[in-house]
Amino acid sequence: MKRFIGFINIAGAILMMATATLPISFAFAADCGDKKVSADVSAKPAEKTKTSPAKAEETGVKKSAKTEKAEVPKSSKAVRLKPAAHQTREKEAEPGERLTIKQVMELLKKTRNLSGKNLSGLRLIGLDLSKCNFKGADLSNANLERADLGEAILERANLSGANMKMTDLRVTGLKGARLERAVLDGAIWQDGTICAKSSIGSCKEDPDRFGSN
Question: Which long-range contacts (CB under 8 A, 24 or more apart) does 118-122 make?
Fold first, then answer.
């Protein structure tokens, strides 16, 4: 009986020890779990802070690359700019607009066709205008003194008021040309006749050409 009571006492002591250790183990486990959770939670912001600077650098590099690409075409365009043609060459005259001396000289380098052109009032003194086509051109009040118009076409040209002193008109087509008030003193006419002084509007033969008797 004493042995049985002693056994019961021993068993009770063991049970008491076991019940005392259980809360400790649970508390230890809970502490460990809290530490893991806190460690995980604290680790996540650290990862974000580590990756965010890298992303910021990448975006900065992309933006700078875009700006560099955008600037390259602008600089290339600035280098390739060339002066416009109208800045280096004289502007061409509109139909019916009076030409300038420079424009006339430019045309004579390329062609002898000046038909229908407006040359009114221009100083064309001593110019070589031989074999030029002045058909229907306006030469009114132009200064053609000593100009060479040999074999030129002056059909239906307006020569009214023009100064044609000593102008060479040999073998020149003057059909339908207007010669009102045109001064022809000393001009060489189509047939080689030298026009007398005071030849205005038409060529007058000099009566003293062969000398007086």
Answer: 118/93, 120/158, 122/98
The answer to whether 154 touches 179, Cβ cutoff 8 Å, is no
Report the C-alpha gap between 30 and 39 in whole angstroms.
14
Q: For domain 92-208, is the CATH number 1.20.120.80?
A: no
Q: Domain coordinates of the chain in residue numbers?
A: 1-81, 92-208
d(CA 125, CA 55): 82
174 in Cβ contact with 194 (< 8 Å): no
Is 0.85 topped by the overall pTM?
Answer: no
What would the pLDDT profile of 29-62 be if each residue is shown by its tens digit? 445 444 444 444 444 444 444 555 555 555 554 5
